[in-house]
């Protein structure tokens, strides 16, 4: 009787089969975390804290890795705050951000360019990769870190200013504050 690695699955006969089985298990595990929103973000916060502690207490500075991680996280944040259909890029084909209720009094939701789960998943992967990179000594390149910090702050300021202006111009808020409740005026 052949031995099985996974429940009910035959043993892998080559690398591709093993890779497929591992990816399926990983995807199954990730999909189980969808409903645990606070726990997912707490885990990412823990990984971020672990990364900061690793960088702080290691002998090197890991400035280039930290800078690359910061730029990537900024890119993810901008995609998370952006609408899926940009009104500046759309021609008159009827696709626009919802600003008022439709005639049947139905509010259209804000659809993001990068959904929250994918945002979390990309941050998780980037933190794991960055944490792994801090264990590779030749990636600790000597750079003058204040220049990188100033450059990151300038990039962050310019992109967020542009994003906030876009939000004000097209009157959208990328966050929902909960279900709106209505009260009656009858007393």
Fold and architecture overview:
- The protein has helices at 15-32, 37-57, 63-81, 116-133, 145-169.
- The chain has a domain at 37-87 and 110-169.
- The protein starts with 14 loop residues before the first helix and ends in an 18-residue tail after the last helix.
- It is extended.
- The chain has 187 residues and is mostly helical.
Overall helicity:
40-55%
* Mean residue pLDDT: 79
Beta fraction of the residues?
under 5%
Largest sheet: none
Report Rg. Answer: 23 Å
Question: Termini separation (Å)?
Answer: 77 Å
The assigned structural class equals: mainly alpha
Number of helices: 5
Low-confidence stretches: none
Question: What is the helix/strand order?
Answer: HHHHH
Shape assignment: extended
Total number of beta strands: 0
In a nutshell, what does this entry contain?
It contains 5 helices and no strands. Helices cover 54% and strands 0% of the residues.
């Amino acid at each position: 009787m052949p031995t099985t690695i996974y429940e009910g699955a035959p043993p892998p006969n080559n690398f591709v089969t093993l890779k497929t089985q591992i990816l399926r298990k990983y995807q199954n595990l990730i999909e189980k975390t969808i409903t645990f929103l606070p726990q997912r973000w707490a885990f990412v916060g823990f990984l971020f804290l672990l990364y900061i502690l690793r960088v702080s207490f290691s002998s090197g500075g890991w400035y280039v890795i930290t800078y690359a991680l910061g730029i990537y996280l900024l890119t993810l944040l901008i995609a998370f705050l952006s609408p899926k259909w940009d009104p500046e890029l759309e021609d008159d084909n009827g696709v626009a951000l919802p600003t008022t209720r439709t005639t049947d009094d139905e509010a259209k939701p804000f659809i993001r360019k990068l959904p929250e789960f994918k945002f979390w998943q990309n941050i998780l992967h980037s933190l794991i990769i960055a944490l792994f990179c801090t264990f590779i000594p030749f990636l600790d390149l000597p750079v003058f870190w204040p220049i990188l910090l100033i450059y990151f702050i300038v990039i962050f300021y310019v992109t967020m200013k542009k994003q906030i202006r876009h939000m004000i111009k097209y009157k959208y808020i990328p966050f929902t504050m909960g279900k709106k409740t209505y009260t009656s005026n009858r007393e």
